[in-house]
Specification:
This protein is α+β, with helices and mostly antiparallel strands. The protein contains 6 helices and 12 strands. The strands form 4 sheets. The protein has a 5-stranded mixed β-sheet with strand order 7-9-10-12-11. It has a 3-stranded antiparallel β-sheet with strand order 3-4-5, sandwiched between helices. It has a two-stranded antiparallel sheet with strand order 1-2. It starts with a strand and ends with a strand. It binds adenosine-5'-diphosphate and magnesium ion (MG).
Length: 357
């Protein structure tokens, strides 16, 4: 019985009979008792099948009081099945039913076990996610708290200086307030981007853009800091074609990579930016001669707040590379880092697909 039909397992005929229809087999299921007919010609419920049956014996198979099928015996002879045959078939049906019941129980047990395993895995995943979220929130709160505390400290100093009519340090105090307010702005901007990516709310508006245009915009963005650190940016565009990109977001990625390269490299050093074509993709790589990254830190880089301590990294939010990863992946690309280790410089690379012509 499958749903509201009786399905024959004789491979050749394999008909599907509606349980509500005519026929001795479905009648046996419906009425849930054995049917033995000696002369089918005289039986109003008989429906001729593939065999020219003159007598028929139908015994229902029951699992937990419910008909799940039948054993159907047909003969071209009239009155072929005796009372003993019926008893034999009924005994056989009992055995088959018992086996079916055991199979069903085993299947149910396995399904229950699989469901429990799945539920356990899901619960574990949810617990881990909750822990990550809580940790993220407490780090973010702490990161916001620090500049806020500074700002409050300096405004008190300003207040005191004004009361004492001593203006000698006012400029220093105001600069400190401004520096910390800028840090807060960077931090909240990055937190918003991180949340947007996390929740799938960051929208990309992609337009065909040449890599040349991207590099010009990047240079404009990165130059002040490079001049400040007397560093050079050597750009080589071996691709020179068109990519389908959200221009502002891709420049955000490049600016962050070049910004990091500048920040984590000595004054006066050189940074290289290479653009090349590779198997239908455009590969950008930013190489520096800076502090490098120990192998154990490489897997942490693209997570929020990786907690890698580098001397003098005061302006960082620890969210930049995580945002880069999100933006690159929204373009259908990948991002990764390589480094020879501490003091050996680093290379950050990412790909995006070439624009379709
Ligand atoms: N070019 C680089 N050289 C060495 N370390 C780097 C470089 N770029 C990134 N890092 C490491 O990865 C961390 C995460 O980078 P990022 O997400 O941009 O955060 P931030 O720049 O705000 O510190 C940095 O704090 C630093 O430890
Ligand atoms: Mg950064």
């Amino acid at each position: 019985v499958e749903g509201s039909e009786l399905v024959s397992h004789r491979p050749k005929s394999a008909p599907r009979l509606p349980l509500s229809g005519r026929g001795l087999t479905v009648k046996a299921v419906r009425e849930d008792h054995t049917i033995r007919v000696g002369d089918t010609g005289g039986d109003p419920d008989f429906v001729k099948g593939s065999l020219d049956a003159h007598s028929e014996l139908v015994v229902p198979l029951r699992v937990r009081g419910e008909a799940v099928g039948v054993i159907n015996l047909e003969s071209t002879r009239g009155y072929a099945f005796t009372h003993d045959d019926q008893r034999l078939a009924e005994t056989l049906a009992l055995h088959v039913s018992g086996t079916l019941e055991r199979i069903r129980l085993a299947e149910e047990k396995q399904l229950t076990q699989e469901r429990m395993l799945r539920e356990e895995a899901a619960a574990e995943q949810a617990r881990m996610l909750a822990t990550v979220k809580t940790r993220f929130l407490s780090t973010a709160t702490h990161e916001i708290r620090t500049p806020l505390t500074s700002i409050m400290g300096y405004t008190e100093l300003i207040q005191g200086a004004l009361e004492a009519e001593d203006t000698s340090k006012l400029q220093v105090y105001f600069d400190a307030v401004q520096r910390n307010a800028e840090r807060l702005t960077r931090l909240t901007d990055d937190l918003l981007d991180t949340q947007r990516i996390e929740e799938g709310r960051m929208k990309m508006s992609k337009t065909p853009t040449t890599t040349r245009e991207l590099l010009v915009d990047l240079a404009r963005e990165a130059t002040p800091r490079l001049i400040h650190r007397r560093q050079t940016l050597e750009v080589s565009d071996g691709f020179g074609g068109v990519v389908d990109a959200d221009r502002d977001r891709l420049i955000q990625v490049l600016a962050n990579l070049v910004g990091n390269a500048s920040k984590f490299s000595p004054e006066g050093s050189a940074i290289q930016l290479l653009v090349e074509e590779r198997g239908g993709e455009v590969l950008f790589s930013v190489r520096d001669e800076g502090v490098g990254i120990p192998p154990e830190d490489l897997p942490k880089l693209f997570k929020p707040f990786p907690g890698i301590h580098v001397e003098g990294n005061r302006e960082g939010t620890g969210l930049g590379l995580n945002i880069c990863k999100g933006i690159v992946e929204l373009h259908g690309g990948r991002i990764w880092a390589e480094s020879g280790g501490l003091g050996k410089g680093s290379t950050f690379s990412f790909t995006i697909p070439e624009a379709q012509p």
